[in-house]
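Lab manual, section 2.4: Encoding a predicted structure.

Procedure: take the sequence of the chain (325 residues), apply the prediction step described in section 2.3, and record the output as structure tokens. A sample record is shown.
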Amino acid sequence: MQKITIIDSTLRDGNHAIKHQITKEVYRDYARGAEKAGIPILVVGHGNGLGASSLHLGKSLVSDKEMLSIVKKELVNTKLAAFAIPGFATLSDVEMAKEEGVEILFVATHCTEANVSKEYIRRSGLKCYGALMMSHMESAYKLLEQAKLMESYGAVGIFLMDSAGASLPNEVKLKVSVLVEGLHIPVGFHAHNNLGMAVANSLTAAGRGATMLDATTRGFGAGAGNAQLEVLVALLNKIGYETGTSLKELLKNTEIIEKLKGPQLVSPLSIMSGLNGVFSGFVPHVERISKEYKVDPWDIFTELGRRKVVAGQEDQILEVALSLS
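Recorded output:
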């Protein structure tokens, strides 16, 4: 029976869904439930990771330091992880995270810029996984080249991140297969649901040799959300994979998230985001700006997709809206 390691990003990617306003009580209670459920790795942070709390990207209700401290107190067997995008996160942020008890670091870059992860992976002193964001934007073999760079820096695994929820199963099948065959370290997959394919894509990745899957409770996350953790685990169990997690306890944890936000649906804006390959986190910004400047969001997403914008370029939404208005 193949073992799948579950990475729970509810307390990180989920922050996108409520403008980074997860409360201290939710961090504490959710972490307690994740420990009971046997979640191997729990990722905590601002939606864009360490150091990303800002007026530009959204201010966190709770500081990086405090949220990590709160969660760490509730964990015994579950490993505490942080997420770092070089440029948002500094090495000082990483050092702070380590002091607060973080054991695992996900170092994420745009899928063509793995070279900027070098110092973070080599100098963090933590177990590091490389993550290639917006993986729909590159071919399987280009992704393999970038993944090999992260592997050479010391990454212990590589995640393909479908940050825009733009991928279809055949693409996932090819890209995961190429990485599994070409790397000496495990491969993982992080799905978004902008086209309603997050769970299907995650199962496809597992079927092609990915041994790590990243998901969130109730699909809580950017855009239309992520692969829904409890659904994914239920299906993995049904198929015959071993996850080592308690579905019964995972289902109890859904009650905490349900109070924060209703079900995340595949909205018209999420479909536009997925079809144009635009980062899921842009959805609320496009919604607000399109109303303010009376511009059709379809036209904004079309132009953002043409420009191949990535996370961190949110300022281009306003630029595009102004040009269209």
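Check your result against the sample. The chain is about 45% helix and 10% strand.
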